[in-house]
Amino acid sequence: MNATQTSRDTSWYPHHRSPRQFIPLQQIKVAASPGEWHSLGADPLFALEGQLPLPGWNMLELDEESSVSGVVATLTLESSRRQVTFDFPVRQGKVTKRLVFVPFGVKRVTFVPMNAAGTFTLRHFQFVWLTPMFAHNRLLQRLANMHQHYRDLPLAEVKQSLQQQASKQSRKWQSIALEDYDSTFISMSTRRHYQQWIRQIEQRRAPSDHDVAIRTNVHAFESSVLLVCPHCSATNECLDDFKHKLAISLASLAEQALAPRRVLLLITPGRHKELSDWLKQWQRELSVLVVRETEALSVAAQRLEALSYCENTWVWFLRLGDRLAENALFYAACIAHDNPQAQMLIADEDSLDEHGIRHSPVFKPEYNPDLLLSMPYMGRAVCYQHAFVPRLAVESCAGQVNNANWLDYAQTLSVTRRRDFMATKLAHIPHIAYHGVPEQVSTSFVSLVQQHLNQLDTSAQVRDGLLSGTQRVRWPMPSPEPLVSLLVPTRNGVDILRPCVDAILDRTDYSHFELIILDNQSTCTETLAYLHDVEGRDSRVKVLHWDHPFNYSSINNFGAAQARGSIIGLINNDVEPIEGTWLTEMVEQVSRPEIGCVGAKLYYPNDTVQHGGVILGLGGLAGHAHRFFQRDEDGYMGRLKVTQNLSAVTAACLLLRKSVFDEVNGLNEADLAVAYNDVDLCIKVREAGYRNLWTPYAALYHHESISRGADDTPEKRARWLSEYAYMRKAWGELLDSDPAYNPNLTLVHEDFSLR
């Protein structure tokens, strides 16, 4: 491959250096398409030849297109004295830039383009030599934006902190800064790096014996208890296999940092006779109460009977062969103490393969009602106060009396139907507390969720979702259908505006809307002619003129004041609906009285995801979930294909009721003229008691920020910094603890990788 295939001509820029050739060394072959390569495994390797980077600080620029999301590239610099490596995530459609310090005497440079099998194209690859002063400023700026220890500190204070650390360690502050800087580029995939995360992160965070002793003694956490009901009445199971599974479960309880008071085991008389002596050995280590069933009961009946023997405060259901994590009871006790109102604890969990190796971690959000209707995301790792445990009647289990997954889901849904239920009665344990053996048989939960919604006296209809084991809930459309006012700010740019407006008018099945184009001082004659034409030929279109300097918040507040509809739609002038049902789905959702803002699934023109909802805290303030994922990918936990509650959604396509918009005083004109006003609006709506929602069933293309341009001038940069500072001051605590996310997941990347 020639350097000209991946970089611009740099012959006139002596500090810009690009390799002339990429020589495949292993697991790489040329693909059929020009410039495309095949990675044949997890360790494809190039050697770079020609124009190696200059010694000192360099900015590496990489633009790589990959068929796989969430991959990491690695650069290795080798000299006669040492070898240094740099990892950085690959982002679709985005140039990745990161600082590297190139030592003197580099003789060989190798490059791993991705750590997975797939195809890739190198569009741009370049080293740019930097002055030390410029490099140091970029170091400090990224630490202030991205690193949890320096976030929101002025650059001078970041440098002072680094200098203090350097003095104590007898090192250069630049070396410490580079290590911390490097850590912000680490992307640990839940699929590829989970074992590494367990070793490096989870084990380091584990409580010490001293921690357990102190919290136990001070807060009397020993009163927290455990009930095990592994549903082990099957007589046709091999005895050795049965003993092996039961031993795995019991051993996980014996190893708890905080010991349970009682383990309750239901077992058939015949199986108990076979295991009597073996169980007595376990009773020396654990307080095991063995209850012999009078008959072989269903799983549902077992749970009811087991609860009748339980005298303890807290209850877990542990399936045969599953394990509680070593510190599960300790973490549960701590969370229960810190949340005394909680009657139900939801923990993170993972799965066990046939060799007992952990995989597929599920790092859950806090209580997320619409996600719960879409999928049984609470899973198995749920701990109840005894008095709060749903006692499901066996006759109500609709033929699912032996389906533990169905029963777990039914129990959690039953809790949310209680008249006294409040979200505060649920607390999240942000630790892996449960290791489960995956079920091989998939289950449809459509009838269960339909039954649940019927008992809530709704008219919603449930059908299969986009993924197996998920559901789509269709909410009733109000009668009469509400008028929707779609607000589209614009200035010139008819080539952008025309396809947006024409697509909305032509590709929207929901017809009861008005489209208000908010013209902000357009001067282009073609644009003005189009505005006149479209307003004249379609009665749904109205053009309003805003003759003031650009202020996104002011323009939309002006439009909302003129809108006739009971529902407001904030729509960018660079979006295009993909299918006609987009607005129907959003109106059905936003018409629910408990729902505030509703957002859509947005794609870039190359069919990668632009917006899967907004996660607070990403990149220091807020970022788009699953950005650059491929269109057909499911996303983490399948969350790209299920309706769910999120703290915020983008105003590129956002609906909310006009009454809610007015209640929170609309968009913030004074402090957020351009950026983050949609995030601020969503947070205000959430703080007012409404749930924001994102749906994958409304899909549009988004040509992001084409019309406004980049923040590439000193004035725009200063404005952005001011808006960033306002958001951090106004919502800083919320921005660092998004309840729709999980504290074990990254705040640097949009890919739900591990923190």
Automatic annotation (TrEMBL):
Enumerate the spans annotated as Glycosyltransferase 2-like domain: 485-663
Signal sequence residues: none
**Origin superkingdom:** Bacteria
Matches recorded under SUPFAM superfamilies: Nucleotide-diphospho-sugar transferases
Family matches, as Pfam families: Glycos_transf_2
Listed name of the protein: Glycosyltransferase
Per the UniProt entry, what species is this protein from, by scientific name?
A: Halomonas colorata
Q: What is the lineage of its organism?
A: Bacteria, Pseudomonadati, Pseudomonadota, Gammaproteobacteria, Oceanospirillales
